[in-house]
Amino acid sequence: MLALALGFVLVADLIAVVVAVVVIIAVVIAVGTVLAAVNIPV
């Protein structure tokens, strides 16, 4: 049972990391799109 709980925690952490990376990428793309639309040199 302990191993199962530990495994669940590891999977949850992994999912959290993946979600965080996806959100960061989405924000970067959104900011880049806005900057490109406003024609502000990066």
Overview of the structural elements:
- The chain crosses the membrane at residues 6-38.
- Keywords: Membrane, Transmembrane, Transmembrane helix.
- The radius of gyration is 18 Å and the shape is rod-shaped.
- The protein is mainly alpha-helical and 42 residues long.
- The protein has one domain.
- The protein is built from one helix and no strands.
Tell me the layout of helices and strands.
Elements: H1 2-38
Keywords summarizing the entry:
single chain; 42 residues; mainly alpha; 88% helix
Count of individual domains:
1
User: Ends: how far apart?
Assistant: 52 Å
| H and E string | H
Global Rg: 18 Å
What's the number of extended β-strand segments?
A: 0
Approximate shape:
rod-shaped
Largest sheet: none
Estimated structural class = mainly alpha
Tally of alpha and pi helices: 1
Q: Please, what is the average pLDDT?
A: 91
Low-confidence runs of at least 5 consecutive residues: none
User: Helicity level, as a percent range?
Assistant: over 70%
Keywords: Membrane, Transmembrane, Transmembrane helix
Transmembrane segments: 6-38
